[in-house]
């Protein structure tokens, strides 16, 4: 156990998988964690001094499966291998940690999504700013930025890291980080000395082999450079310093993107369906027609980080337009891309020594396609496409080298042999000749022994346990010569050896061992040569990813009838004949999605949308949000025509549910979301509100919705779509000049309601609640009773209405008063007004709640103001 404990002490907080023969074992607390996490038995040593040590293990061939299970749960895992054959070990077998796998640092196909980046992130909390660095070790993408503390949530939302590193000294920040990230985010604390400014600067200069970082554009980002150096140190430990393939670092500008918070991504169903959490029925599922893994990753990044840079958006749109108009060339390009492997991840695996022979061969074949792709691109004129043409860098010499080195029938692993082509290395060819000659001689020995013994069925065979041997059936064992040495008795035969067989076996095994060693050395040399071309391959891979994403946009536009939007810096939003990009693809056969218009200008800043449930209000809100998002990722949009003014953020409050784990009710969740919008939206934002104030009383809810509407109109000025069931709010149009009423139209035929799915000017006349309930399948007796109750309530209300007592009248007068100057005082003791007196005397002070008392007081004040 001493050897284990020494290794374990070097990896605190990491589960150490300790190789013992054909098993990986864990001990003590690690064993308890692993047993519970992956469901394997927890045992104890059967004998020896360590009899009471908890133990949990699994077979060596299941390593990747169990590592994946552990890392998915946020654990970090160190793999400790036997570095020598136990048969030849003197004393304890030498062991070393050969790999450390963490949520943010892994290369396993079982852990990685081919079309999603896996970012490791480091944070450095400086005095006024937070330095952020993030890297995808599988693609070598490495970026940094600095943000004020208030912007950290937005930054992490844009990056979507899989693991976050920070200093032990900044433990107090852990609670803050947990409050702004997902509940299962893995955090890793590192020693404070790693977060030193001077040390960081030197680490970066040494790694990039440069005298200055000015060429990377990060020279002035001092806090971010500390975070970047922390990442390099962390990778040096986990990847045993195999970091040469990380050749670049760049600056990430958060201000160039629309930050989509988790709420907006969820509400717009951008990546995951709200129904079942799957990818189906999402915007990504509609848009992703990419054919390469790197193209899929870039497309997802574009969608998660919509651009605010007009030139970037315009260049993408122009490229997509040309690809749409050149169908045959688009199809030819897509056919070429279909043959490519994951250039970025294959290169990274090769650079760190994890690639298989087949992966190297596949990389070579993929690189061989670059000249053809470049030639096809050369026929297009859009500026972005010509940039991609110039960015692609064919590697013809490297392709020739790989083809000459790796056998076209290369096995899955290096240990299987026959990896290197004949003719590539003279020494290897000579060793293979020795083996071939010796094996030919074995066939001769077999024939000679058959003739000597008269046993026609005598065979010379081989297995890993006994090597080469002669096999003779029991029926012929009486013919076996005395000098044959028995090695094994089988059910139907005997196995023997003879001196000459041992001689040639020694020659073959020695040569084969040398062949495996030489092939491993030649393969490693080839991988190092490939890694020397890393920058060229990475540049080409990024160009291919961009091309693949643009082709995906063009394919979607052609298939689904999207149009090129006009994107402008003007503060406008005009959509004619807009459609929901996802719902229109999910329509039953024979049905068409009903298009709708949307227009914002200087006179319209807030669309107040009323109408019954199920009439299409929510879908309309999402539709507008998705069309704006599509335009700002540089994609065509589902509409007849669209003019999109750049927005800086998209906010959504669509639906709500309890967050009981955090002690939050539906109403509190709703208010938190609304507060986030009101505190962070600007005049350049797009706000989508679908119901506010549902989780409380009618008066409370309507008061809150009213105040929010006024605040957005008067203070923020953002383009806003507000769908509400409070029809009384429609009175605001007469008093807030940039509020316009719209409704989700319906047609009533007898007692049936037909949803027309059309958004029209004007307020809704009814909510048709009972009709919707009937459509939902409520029992007929319940519907009938609801109608009776409604009729009685309407009669009582009609009899009760006395001027200001009518809610609509109150609303109208409140709207008028909201613009009046508050330049008077109310005397609560002036009872000359009969209505005020009656209202006060009508109060039952024994039954009224505190909130009702406040609302009543506000009502009484309004009554006095109106006099």
UniProtKB/TrEMBL annotation:
Note whether DNA-binding occurs among the keywords. yes
GO cellular component terms given for this protein:
cytosol
UniProtKB keywords: ATP-binding, DNA damage, DNA repair, DNA-binding, Nucleotide-binding
Q: Which residues form the DNA mismatch repair proteins mutS family domain?
A: 685-701
The record's Pfam families line, in alphabetical order, gives:
MutS_I (PF01624), MutS_II (PF05188), MutS_III (PF05192), MutS_IV (PF05190), MutS_V (PF00488)
**Matches recorded under SMART domains:** MUTSac, MUTSd
Which GO annotations describe the biological process of this protein? mismatch repair
Write down the superkingdom of origin.
Bacteria
For the keyword Lipid biosynthesis, the answer is: no
Residues the record lists as binding ATP:
611-618
This entry's Gene Ontology molecular function terms read: ATP binding; ATP-dependent DNA damage sensor activity; damaged DNA binding; mismatched DNA binding
PANTHER family in the record: DNA MISMATCH REPAIR PROTEIN MSH1, MITOCHONDRIAL, DNA MISMATCH REPAIR PROTEIN MUTS FAMILY MEMBER
Functionally, this protein is described as follows: This protein is involved in the repair of mismatches in DNA. It is possible that it carries out the mismatch recognition step. This protein has a weak ATPase activity.
| Family to which this protein belongs | Belongs to the DNA mismatch repair MutS family.
Protein name as annotated: DNA mismatch repair protein MutS
Organism of origin: Candidatus Thermochlorobacter aerophilus
